[in-house]
Amino acid sequence: MFFSLVLIGVVSGVLLGLVLALMATGFNLALGVARVVNFQIGAMILWAMYGGFFMWSKLGWHPYLAVWPIAAFAFCVGYLMHRYLVIHSQSTPEDSQILFSLGLLIALQYLAQFCFSTDARSIVAENLQGAVQAGPVIVQYTQIAAGAVALAVLVFLHYMLTHTDLGRQLHACAQNAVGAQVSGLNVKNISAVAMGISAMCASVAGIALATLMPIYPERAFEYSIMAVVVSVLGGMGSMAGSVMSGLLVGVIISVCQAMGYGAVAQAIVYALVFIVFLVRPTGLIKAKLG
Length: 290
Prior knowledge:
This protein has helices spanning 2-34, 41-57, 63-89, 94-116, 141-163, 165-175, 177-182, 187-210, 219-234, 239-258, 265-279, and strands spanning 131-134, 137-140. By secondary structure, the protein is an all-alpha fold.
């Protein structure tokens, strides 16, 4: 029985961890390229969850069909938010930038509470009901779909960062923004694109999470903290580190829940982050995009 519960937790944790890795990758991309501590990523996730819910409940769209327009809209919001709002905070001291980002998170969270109330909502797509059983392991279709979509986006991001001109431009701005500007790159525009991609990652993660758990405004702060925790654990600015730490955190949370100790899961995660930070301040993997 113990082995079965652990095995179920590991499989479920890997699938959840892919979604967490996507959240952290978005956070790291904004931090590495745009130099923005993107705490508002939790609000982007929350609003994507509500967007997916209303497109499913009011328009009858499947949540993973709705992800396309929502991700495109999120990219535009992230891009414009950086060009006309966030960029003005970057001329202030770092602590003011962090407070500005936290202020955006709180404002967007309370705006969601004003628009949608505090009532919990859920997406229950008919063709995502059911489970797959392999021996003692039972995995819900919703978990498989969420993990598969997150994995597909992560693979696409890795290819984009390592095999395209845009990826090379993002790398150049992340490594040396002044040098990139001297060489002729529009650093402001590329930073805004990075923020747009970060928002897009948040929106896809939001749709995936909306099929797994209830939706309510307080989720925004929770997801922002989780994105930061996974990023710090894996290595700030490292996509590979985000994936590794996302899987690790997902497995810890899921195994604890399967064993009936869900309440202590986050305590274990925070303790692990503290230990890693003491032993290896750069995180599990040294910062590197792609």
